[in-house]
Amino acid sequence: MIEKIKTYFEKQAYGVCDWWGNFYGIPSSKIRLFFIYASFLTAGSPLIIYLVMAFVLRLRNMMKQHRG
């Protein structure tokens, strides 16, 4: 049960990190660590940026599906 939940959140929540990692050729684990450390240092503001990027990425994927 816990493994299913973990897998779901990794697929849904880490899509932004995977996309940025593929785009820049950086391992997504390093990008995740950056967001975690930056969130601790700046009281969570990168989390808001991350959520906005996830929303934009999801819209982008929806637009691709709609076109083709």
What is shown here, in short?
With 68 residues, the chain is mainly alpha-helical. 87% of the residues lie in helices and 0% in strands.
Tell me what you see in this structure.
By secondary structure, the chain is mostly helical. It has one domain. Helix content is 87%, strand content 0%. It has four helices and no strands. The mean pLDDT is 81.
Show unreliable segments. none
Any idea what the shape is? Answer: globular
Helix and strand composition category:
mainly alpha
Oligomerization status of the protein chains: single chain
Largest sheet: none
Mean pLDDT: 81
What gyration radius follows from the Cα positions, in whole Å?
13 Å
Number of strands: 0
Tally of separate helices: 4
Descriptive terms for the model:
68 residues; 87% helix; 0% strand
What is the strand and helix layout of this fold?
Blueprint: H1 2-13, H2 15-24, H3 28-41, H4 45-67
